[in-house]
Write a structure and sequence with these properties.
The structure holds two protein chains of two kinds. Helix content of chain A is 65%, strand content 0%. Chain A has one domain. Chain A contains five helices and no strands. Helices cover 71% and strands 0% of the residues of chain B. Chain B is built from four helices and no strands. The chains are: A mainly alpha, B mainly alpha.
Chain lengths: 160, 98
């Protein structure tokens, strides 16, 4: 894949920020609305894959290496396990939600029943959503990028 | 069988017994065995999560609180699967590139 026409590139430029905003919104509001880290990460990774198709894998590989994406993915995984271990240290068990209802960060009290959404709730759930979102974005985009780049090289395409 | 193997078998049996007992101690969930039960989808597990997710996990989204709090080990397994997939794809296609 060595880039598509100027029309496709322009349309991709216009829609890319909107897709990013939508995906990051799904990740950030995972503890309030349907969705979460996996779903929002898949949306963001799909937007990145659209840029990859429009501009070609060689251009994209020049902008971001798959090594950096692997580092980001591992950071997400470490962040996720780290929060779970903090639950073991501060709470009683692995994956304890030690921040919920604590008043420190994401710790507002939630009244039971049908209430208005408060972003500052959920304890460790928003942090875990961010960790899993980072992991899914980097992981899925690394898979697509590496596959596209490798097939471009081996099939002799990519004149740019 | 070496001493290390014996230790591994003992550890495996202890962990397996622990998991089986914790599975037996869970609240019942899913549809009941009786097909004439009018209370078909009203299992104790669902009721507990719907009643307590806002006070225990502090989140309005019950699904997220189940995925990341009540059932966090499963999400850890999913993350491991994704990590393994990415590692395998990068490994295979890095060889192909050169």
């Amino acid at each position: 894949m060595s880039g598509m026409s100027k029309i496709v590139k322009t349309i991709s430029n216009v829609t890319f920020p909107l897709i990013m905003i939508y995906g990051l919104y799904i990740i950030a509001h995972g503890h309030l609305t349907p969705g979460g880290g996996f779903q929002g990460g898949a949306v963001v990774a799909s937007g990145c894959a659209m840029i990859l198709v429009a501009y070609g894998s060689i251009w994209t590989m020049g902008k971001i290496k798959e090594k950096n994406l692997s580092v980001l993915e591992s950071l997400g995984a470490l962040f996720f396990i780290g929060i779970a271990l903090f639950g073991l240290i501060f709470g009683a068990v692995f994956f304890n939600n030690f921040l919920a209802d604590g008043g420190v960060i994401f710790g507002d009290h939630v009244i039971s029943g049908s209430t208005a959404a408060d972003f500052n709730t959920g304890g460790v759930l928003p942090l875990m959503n961010f960790a899993v979102g980072l992991k899914v974005i980097a992981g899925l985009f690394a898979i697509v990028l590496v596959m596209a780049y490798a097939t471009t090289r081996s099939s002799g395409g990519g004149k740019e | 069988m070496t001493r290390r193997d014996t230790l591994a078998v003992v550890f495996f049996v202890v962990v397996a017994v622990f998991f089986v007992f914790s599975a037996l101690m869970m609240r019942s969930f899913g549809p009941s065995a009786d097909p004439n039960d009018t209370d078909y989808f009203n299992a104790p597990m669902d009721d507990y999560i719907i009643d307590n997710t806002q006070s225990e996990a502090g989140a309005n989204n019950g699904v997220t609180s189940v995925v990341f709090d009540y059932r966090g080990f499963d999400t850890l397994g999913e993350a491991t699967v994704l990590f393994t997939a990415v590692a395998a794809v990068v490994l295979v296609f890095r060889r192909l590139k050169k």
